[in-house]
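From the methods appendix. Each design record in this collection lists the tokenized structure first, followed by the designed amino acid sequence. Records were kept in a plain field format so they could be parsed without special tools. The example shown here is representative of the layout used throughout.

RECORD:
FOLD TOKENS (154 positions):
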């Protein structure tokens, strides 16, 4: 199996990265943090194994916050343009949640579901598929990971 090298970066192109592994899962998050961070209705998170992430240009800046779940997360961003590149939870140090909009090629990564839909904007809630939507976040992401793998192996 050939692994695709994923590349990406920030809006001003100061930050550039590459990831040399397949994504673990992708999903849309409707929490209030993701809405504010993306300046949109939701954020797209794409999990990758942390060791496969390589910064190829620039220097990331970091800040810490608490997620809606109460978990602490470290947020990596470009200090020049403010683009969020990824976040990492302190209890999942081997996984980076790369922000989908920072990937150069977003077309091949289809989210497997939606989390934190209780915070979703009302006009979004009506279009969400109940079987792949979670009021907060799933206790276990295995269902979404399996759905993601299945949809990407078709």
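DESIGN:
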């Amino acid at each position: 199996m050939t692994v695709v090298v994923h590349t990406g970066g920030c809006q001003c192109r100061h930050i550039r990265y590459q990831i040399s592994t397949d994504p673990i899962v992708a999903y849309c998050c409707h929490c209030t943090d993701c809405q504010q961070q993306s300046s949109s209705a939701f954020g797209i998170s794409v999990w990758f194994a942390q060791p496969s992430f390589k910064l190829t240009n620039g220097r990331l800046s970091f800040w810490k916050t608490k997620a809606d779940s109460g978990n602490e997360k470290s947020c990596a961003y470009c200090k020049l343009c403010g683009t969020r590149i990824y976040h990492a939870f302190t209890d999942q140090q081997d996984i980076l949640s790369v922000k989908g909009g920072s990937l150069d090629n977003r077309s091949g990564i289809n989210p497997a579901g939606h989390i934190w839909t209780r915070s979703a904007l009302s006009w979004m809630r009506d279009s969400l598929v109940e079987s792949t939507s979670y009021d907060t976040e799933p206790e276990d992401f295995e269902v979404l990971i399996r759905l993601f793998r299945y949809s990407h192996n078709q």
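APPENDIX NOTE: The first strand starts at residue 6 and ends at 9.
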